[in-house]
Amino acid sequence: MSETESTTSEAGELSRRPGRERGRDDGKFGRYGGQYVPEALMPAIEELTDAYERYVLGNEDGFMDEFRERLADFGGRPIPLQRADRLSERYDTDVFLKREDLLHGGAHKLNNALGQVLLAKYMGKERIIAETGAGQHGTATAMAAAHLDMPCEIYMGERDINRQRPNVFRMKLNGAEVNPVTAGRGTLKEAISETMRDWATTVENTHYVIGSIVGPHPFPVMVRDFQAVISEEMREQSLERTGALPTDVVACAGGGSNTMGSFAAFVDDDEVALHAVEAGGSTLEVDEEAGVAPNSASLYTGEEGVLHGARTKLLQDSDGQIMESHSISSGLDYAGVGPELAYLVDEGRVNPVAVDDDAALEGFHRLSSTEGIIPALETAHAFGFLEEHHEDLGERVIVNVSGRGDKDLDAAIEETDKRDIDEAPDMSMFTGGI
Amino acid sequence: MSERTAETETGNSAAIAEAFADGPAYVPYLAVGDPSYEASLEYVRALDRGGADVIELGLPFSEPIAEGSTIQGALVRSLDAGMTPDRFFAFAEEVDVDAPLVCMTYYNLIYQYGTEAGEAGSASEANGAAASETGPRAFVERAAAAGIEGLVVPDLPAEEADPLREACDEFGLDLVFIVAPTTVGDRLDRIMGRVSGYVYVQARLGTTGARDDVSDQTTESLDRLAEYDVPKAVGFGISAGEHAERIVSGGADGIIVGSALIDIVAEGVEGDLPTAEVADRLEALSRELKEGAERGYAARIGAAESR
Predict the structure, then answer these.
(1) Which residues from B are below 8 Å from A307, CB to CB?
(2) A119 burial class (0-12, 13-18, 19+ CB within 10 angstroms)?
């Protein structure tokens, strides 16, 4: 069925297929999703839902046309689908790379940030707020806000600010204010809570640009629809290049925006296997006493619960308190995951896999040394998966290179030092020099 | 929506209905276990001595998105000191105060309660099947056994509340909803169709926190709610007797005070003050607030009679 349909597969057609319709009307993905927010936020959520339906789904005032035009001119889309020759040889299968690391800003994050800041403009909002963990969503939002001339404030955990100083500087260069969040452990989930608090007092003139397919409806569907351009292009490029759909699509998964972006156009194509690669951290074991899960594998190991406005799969203790997650890549370091992915995993449509810190770091070095692409540590998890599971995959595999690794060089040096990795360069003679 | 079999005209709990029956209700809030289980026993008893008509007890959740920094700080102190739902219920059983108790917490704790075999409130779940199911029933059953008369769940919208509403009706608890200045039309109807005990009228936009002024948004909210019978308790930003007086004279049936009380607890922590001294200050502020509310009520009745 997909063969005949796919020859006419305009993005517009794809966006009306059953998989993409899911969640658009009521924000529910089976038992997941919903709008678990304080009453004071409800009017903002309802206003946003109305704007999503009119501008994003209905293309009112040519919103989607302007969005696509700006993604092309400012963002640099379409993004190439590149054959990875060395990896193809290594795994004896065709490996293609979707090069989202080439999107302006160096990661897929701009697709969503640009869409939401533009939407805020159409809604007549005067101020943008956003949370950020690793700083990738914050920098993308700050870029989009500068591009569209909107005042912007970013909430970021104090600990993340210390880990990601260059990204803090980038946000400030683009004119954004960066507000440190000191509560809790000072990472992403505290920053999300703090941004929601700001929104609760400022809903009338402010739009909250959430960074992933998480949060209350309409955020999960709206962010997916903005990120779906990744898989819409993948699909068209695969058909053009190989005359067929891919057999497998692989993407790393934290909150899940690059994941659903890579999967959205393929959800209805049952012959395409979808692999969501989560951060297995140091171990999948959980320290219940300390409230710590040394991983971020909420799809793979999490339990159903309610966090940040949605019912989804979570890392939580038996009381329902949210666990501190961990990953070598701060962008995957989140205790929840998008409700749509939780649903697709339960349905058996998406295959959740956990790749630990070691395998991810090896993937980081392998892609860097063999293909000349330094991936983000988040993305590196997808290459760890490829190494471990290539024998289970079909003959045309697309891996989403969700971001580039420049931001991670300090962490990569530090983590590499602790391990013995074949492909890794020896930096010991340069100690203290970088 | 489920059919309610209310014991009173406005809810399930006779004690809560009584608290609002004659004169204005003073409804203080504290986070249980802040800064320790033992200290907060004394603090909650001090609120009772200071004239509390209903006491809201906060059960801390790790991600309290509706709270401002003051209450968030209290919840973090309580969690750090080891508070859990079961210790919370033990507290409710031990505290022994006159005022009816209402539990304020976030939905995930209610939803998860009793899901793991061998965990949590085993006595009341010995009959079992419900113990392995997620859902609000096990929590409400345990809360009822601990003497809790009502629940406030700030991240649970009316649209998702039917399972909890049914469980509350089954075990005789009230379910209090928050109404914001921006809550109008269908949303207001949906909430008012499910609320019981009292409605928590949020005085202004934003999260919790003590402020000096009392907003015009309060008066507008009270006007909008005038047609509903359920008592209206106004919260957010009340920190002194004169605020309480103004709000009650403006038509509120009760006042909810959290952050101003928690400021006292926090000062006690920072200054390492003796528990008894902090308790005395909580009792004194409670008296001031209660007296303010009563002055406001007298002024309102007086104005009505002289008309």
Answers:
(1) 63, 108
(2) buried
